[in-house]
Amino acid sequence: MGRRSIEEIRKEEIIDAFFNVVAEKGLMGASTREIATAAGCNHGMLRHYFGNKEAIIKGAVDHLANEYMTEIKEGMAKFAAATDQFNYIFNTFRIESFDASVLQAWLELLAFSKTNPVIREAFQSFYLSFTGIIAGLIRKGMQTGEFKTVDPRITADLICGSLEGNMLLIHINTNHTNGDLLNSQLNRVFLNYLAKET
Prior knowledge:
Layout: H1 6-25, H2 32-39, H3 43-50, H4 53-76, H5 82-91, H6 100-112, H7 117-144, H8 152-172, H9 176-194
Helix pairs in contact: 1-2, 1-4, 1-6, 2-3, 4-7, 5-7, 5-9, 7-8, 8-9
């Protein structure tokens, strides 16, 4: 991979600052000036790279989605069996996998997407990519005989919804052990559901 440009580095610094400011002040309380200060740049530079707060928000959603999808694809490539790849996906949703400020901002952005079509579109794109990976994994498991025949898209929607719900529970429950326990239980439930009957 080649060297990253100054623009890529600066945008990432601004996005990181955005997550920190949103975690501290909430989405509505996070001004572009505060984000710029937290990023170590001036307001003009922030506007040069993103234009406005909505563009920062969309950039943050896109950045996290791309980062997570890359991690998922690279991690899954380490395993041949569909069951092992499935376990890998669930393990990426463990509490220690998430930075608290990023998780808090992600959940606020998800709520904000209900009223903002630009942000909703960014989340929909991520969701379709993520459920597409899960549906493809289920198809693979059905072809290799690891999984029984199910509707891959509906099952992927159920899995994605369960993982998102678990993220919300982890966020509101400060007892991390319970969040991880719920995650491992969800993993078992879905693997049992997908298991081919012998």
